[in-house]
């Protein structure tokens, strides 16, 4: 990923009176009463919008929400207007559509420093098809383009990639910039020793990340449901723990690859097991190699936490993707929370700690430690693909610095 031009490179002369199409990621969770339950993504979009407002731009915000099939009222962006207005300190106007005559009228009425939110861009199937005609209609609303939606940067959609064919300059927003600086920067040029903690339930969804990180890290710590596939590959009895039978050979080859690269790979030595998958299951701690029949591993054990913490104490950069256990159940959240606490403590000591998207973010939020980390990625799939070393279409489409 070569460095891209950023919104910070644009000055008042570039922005004053200009219509700026800003792709943001406002895909936030809403409850049954359409109230926002987590406004992280809305808050993350604020710095770029405020910068544009402050330089006299006419801001046009575009986002998706959920996976609507056509126009679906429950996926309307309307419920976001009050919170967005409150955060920006102005009354944000809202359009009932994202293209067409009505929208054009509203755009021409935006004052300098004003903000118009377009309706869910995924109400049109052309968005996800990256249809050039649709992209052209979106682009026709504006003079230039800012992409600050890191969470959808791994998708080549009309609003993330297609519009860049018609709008110049096309630059990265502050959030996008920060994501790239941390995720690309950490992986391509980390302060060493560099450790990665990879968890989650399945090896299959993390193969790419593990393989890519084995080229870069000094230490790799593995947790979550995926460890049982590694255990079984080593001939351990895993009881009724989750195992991907078709990935046993792969698990063995990943361990061998780590050895040949001199990467210290740590698998948990003890696990917390349960007699059923339930928050109130009976549980006990056993050695990793002796899980009894009918029991399943749902978290890493206290010895593993100690070993993991000691390994992390030696590091200068840590990237974490995926929980250590079933942290949704309090009884099996200890491993994940211990990692969150350790990383918070290391951050304070100057270690670069990067929470790479997905469930790890939820875990850090649950522990109330989000503000302690160096960087928390707002992208799930996008973070994973970046860590796997894949190019992101939404980033590639932006202008080179």
UniProtKB/TrEMBL annotation:
GO terms for biological process: gluconeogenesis; glycolytic process. InterPro entries: Phosphoglycerate_kinase, Phosphoglycerate_kinase_CS, Phosphoglycerate_kinase_N, Phosphoglycerate_kinase_sf. It comes from the Eukaryota. CDD domains: Phosphoglycerate_kinase. GO terms for cellular component: cytosol. PROSITE patterns: PGLYCERATE_KINASE. Keywords: ATP-binding, Cytoplasm, Kinase, Magnesium, Nucleotide-binding, Transferase. (2R)-3-phosphoglycerate binds at residues 41, 122, 155. It is found in: Cytoplasm. The keyword Zinc-finger does not apply. ATP binds at residues 206, 328, 357-360. Its main location: cytoplasm. It holds the Pfam family PGK. SUPFAM superfamilies: Phosphoglycerate kinase. Substrate binds at residues 25-27, 64-67. It catalyses: (2R)-3-phosphoglycerate + ATP = (2R)-3-phospho-glyceroyl phosphate + ADP. GO terms for molecular function: ADP binding; ATP binding; phosphoglycerate kinase activity. Its cofactor is Mg(2+). Monomer. Belongs to the phosphoglycerate kinase family. HAMAP family: Phosphoglyc_kinase. This is Phosphoglycerate kinase.
């Amino acid at each position: 990923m070569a460095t891209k031009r950023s919104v910070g490179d644009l000055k008042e002369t570039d922005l004053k009176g200009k219509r700026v199409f800003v792709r943001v990621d406002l895909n936030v969770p809403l409850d049954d009463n359409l109230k926002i339950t987590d406004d992280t993504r809305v808050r993350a979009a604020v710095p770029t919008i405020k910068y544009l407002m402050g330089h006299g731009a006419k801001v046009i915000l575009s986002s998706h929400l959920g996976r609507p099939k056509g126009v679906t009222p429950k996926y309307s962006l309307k419920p976001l207007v009050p919170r967005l207005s409150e955060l920006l300190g102005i009354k944000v106007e809202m359009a009932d559509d994202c293209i067409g005559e009505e929208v054009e009228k509203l755009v021409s009425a935006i004052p300098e420093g004003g903000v118009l939110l377009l309706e869910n861009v995924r109400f049109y199937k052309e968005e996800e098809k990256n249809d050039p005609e649709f992209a052209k209609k979106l682009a026709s609303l504006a003079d230039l383009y800012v992409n600050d939606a890191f969470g959808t940067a791994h998708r080549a959609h009309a609003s993330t990639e297609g519009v860049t064919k018609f709008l110049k300059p096309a630059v990265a927003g502050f959030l996008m910039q920060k994501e790239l600086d941390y995720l690309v920067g950490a992986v391509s040029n980390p302060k060493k020793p560099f450790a990665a903690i990879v968890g989650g339930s399945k090896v299959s969804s993390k193969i790419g990340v593990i393989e890519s990180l084995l080229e870069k890290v000094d230490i790799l710590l593995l947790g979550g449901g995926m460890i049982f596939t590694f255990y079984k590959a080593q001939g351990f009895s895993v009881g009724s723990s989750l195992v991907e039978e078709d990935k046993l050979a792969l698990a063995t080859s990943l361990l061998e690859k780590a050895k040949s690269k001199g990467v210290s790979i740590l698998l948990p030595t003890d696990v917390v097991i349960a007699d059923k998958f339930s928050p109130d299951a009976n549980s006990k701690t056993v050695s990793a190699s002796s899980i009894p029949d009918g029991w399943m591993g749902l978290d890493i054990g206290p010895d593993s936490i100690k070993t993991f913490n000691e390994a992390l104490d030696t590091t200068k950069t840590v990237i974490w993707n995926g929980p250590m256990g079933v942290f949704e159940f309090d009884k099996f959240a200890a491993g994940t929370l211990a990692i969150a606490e350790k990383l918070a403590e290391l951050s304070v000591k100057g270690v670069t700690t990067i929470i790479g998207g997905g469930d790890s973010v939820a875990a850090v939020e649950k522990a109330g430690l989000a503000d302690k980390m160096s960087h928390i990625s707002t992208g799930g799939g996008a973070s994973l693909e970046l860590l796997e070393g894949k190019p992101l279409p939404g980033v590639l489409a932006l202008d080179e610095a």
